[in-house]
Design a protein that fits this description.
Layout: E1 3-8, E2 21-24, E3 28-30, H1 41-45, E4 49-51, H2 57-60, H3 63-69, E5 78-82, H4 84-93, E6 107-108, E7 111-112, E8 114-118, E9 124-127, E10 130-136, E11 144-150, E12 153-157, H5 166-172, E13 179-183, H6 191-197, H7 202-209, E14 217-221, H8 228-238, E15 244-246, E16 252-254
Parallel strand pairs: 3-4, 4-5, 5-8, 12-13, 13-14, 14-15
Antiparallel strand pairs: 1-2, 1-16, 2-3, 6-7, 9-10, 10-11, 11-12
Length: 255
């Protein structure tokens, strides 16, 4: 079975709030937000692959700190899987020796603590018995969600997005979907801001969920701090005919 552990799922920080990071089994991370901070050093050292959705700070904030924290605990580099623009942003703005050391060259360029691998739409990447597919979505910077498959189930995560067809068409092209995490960052009163920032609000999310032929368990994520109850209440109202639940963090799902 595949285990999905929610380390962080908030659109911001505060007491008990951590930004996006999902642990798949013990060795794969989807995004590297502040949720990583709930892991022990041994748990962090067990992670071998990090699949990033995009380069925004709430999704990569703890990547440099994690790599530094387990520098002397791992023998083989952690593989950072990301699209070209995300890798470029990390190299230029984070691992640039000014903000943080370039750990893709430490302790030596020949044996670094981390390395980058490119992900591309439509390709599937195998890690053990799990297959991950990067699916482009509609956000303010190049972004993609993931569809993750193991022998016993299928999980999908939209990442940050607003109205799009690519994610839903890709999911519909397959026969199965068991679990879906989908964002709704803003309330309906902030629909204009949602469109500008390219996030969902409940109204926009409901329109896109109507495109989905599958009937997975659906969980709402990435709410802005302080607005969670209102956003979720609007999701329940707008998403007629489907049961939705809200992620709080610390949940564990078995597929």
């Amino acid at each position: 079975m595949m285990k999905v552990r929610v380390l962080g799922c908030s659109g911001g920080i505060g007491v008990g709030l951590h930004t996006t990071s999902l642990l798949i089994d013990d060795d794969i991370l989807i995004d590297a937000g502040t949720g990583i901070g709930v892991l022990s050093l041994d748990e962090m050292a067990s992670i071998r692959h990090i699949f990033l959705t995009h380069a925004h700070l709430d999704h990569i904030a703890c990547l440099p700190l994690m790599v530094d924290s387990i520098f002397d605990r791992i023998k083989n580099p952690i593989v950072i899987h990301a699209q070209a623009k995300t890798i470029e942003a990390l190299q230029k703005h984070i691992f640039n020796w000014a903000i943080w050391p370039d750990f893709s060259r430490l302790p030596t360029p020949e044996n670094p603590v981390m390395c980058f691998e490119l992900v591309e739409p439509g390709k599937k990447y195998s890690v053990g018995n799990r297959s991950l597919e990067f699916i482009p979505v509609n956000h303010i910077v190049p972004t993609g969600g993931y569809r993750i498959v193991c022998d016993s189930g299928v999980f999908a995560f939209t990442a940050d997005t607003t109205t799009n067809d690519s994610f839903w068409e890709t999911l519909n092209s397959y026969n199965d979907l068991d679990l879906l995490f989908v964002e709704s960052a803003f309330s309906n009163a902030e629909e204009e801001l949602s469109i500008i920032a390219r996030h969902y609000c409940p109204k926009l999310l409901a329109a896109d969920l109507a495109k989905l032929k599958h009937r997975p368990d659906i969980y709402i994520t990435h709410n802005k701090p302080g607005g969670e109850e209102n956003i979720f209440a609007e999701c329940i109202t707008e998403i007629a005919g489907r049961e939705v639940k809200r992620l709080h963090g610390n949940e564990v799902f078995q597929l």
